[in-house]
Amino acid sequence: MELTQLEYFMTVARLEHMTLASKTLGITQPALSHAIAKLENEIGAPLFERNGRNIKLNRNGTMFSKWIGRALQNIENGLNEIEEWSNPDTGVITLSYLNILGVELIPSLIRSYQLEYPKVRFELTQGNLGDIDEHLEQGFSDIMITSRESTLDNHHWMTVQNVPLYIVVPSQHRYADCSALSLAELSGEPFIGLKNNCGLKATIMSRFQHTGFVLASAYEAEDLITVAGFIKSGLGVSVLPKTLGLMLDELVWIPIIDEGWYWEIGLKWREDHHISPAAKRFIEYVETLHQVE
Fold this sequence. Notes:
Elements: H1 3-15, H2 18-25, H3 29-43, E1 48-51, E2 54-57, H4 59-86, E3 92-98, H5 105-116, E4 121-127, H6 129-137, E5 143-147, E6 155-170, E7 190-194, H7 201-208, E8 216-221, H8 224-232, E9 238-241, E10 251-255, E11 262-270, H9 277-292
């Protein structure tokens, strides 16, 4: 049973005339008659009562048309919904991102984009690195905003920000008055680290590999705000980006002398997955912003 057969059936049922129906559909009358006969044969019952070129639904046809009408409407609704979601002017952009980025970067990007494309909607998912990585890999998100280190071979990557990293100490710490520090100065200091599901951990660990010393790890936290809270309580020091949500009272942010201490944040999407036109336009928009900056 083919979709065109059902559309032909509904047109004949509505017009009750084979010649008029064939003209409306843009096919020959013999072709239409053949299609209706084939449909009845597949169903195993007649659907019409015929009187010359005039034709009316019988009891079978009336029952069948009720359900086919609903089915065709559902198909049309589905196509309209796909169009609405994918249309770059009115579509939906499915975006996942690290929790900490929801304080400043994500709202800023969405606001600036919707000033230009006010009818576009965003479907957002935030979480730790493991959660949003899985969301992207399973196809629930078109785009992910995360750390570069989480990028795999089948991912496209576009840098959005290089966020400077700072040594962060409590206000009563012996380094609190320093204008800048080298990471070597942290040797022996209790260090508040991050668990593997935090997007910043891979960045920090890759940088520490070139400092020539081993961290005296004291605690590992689930997220960056917990790290900031532990530092404030005097439980250790750490390295963090100076972003909204982390700048608690009684924390001191010390610039790092060593080169390369920044957190590269960007857009990631799968090259082997379909990207909707709405998402493609957003990627192009962010790329243009990055070039201007």
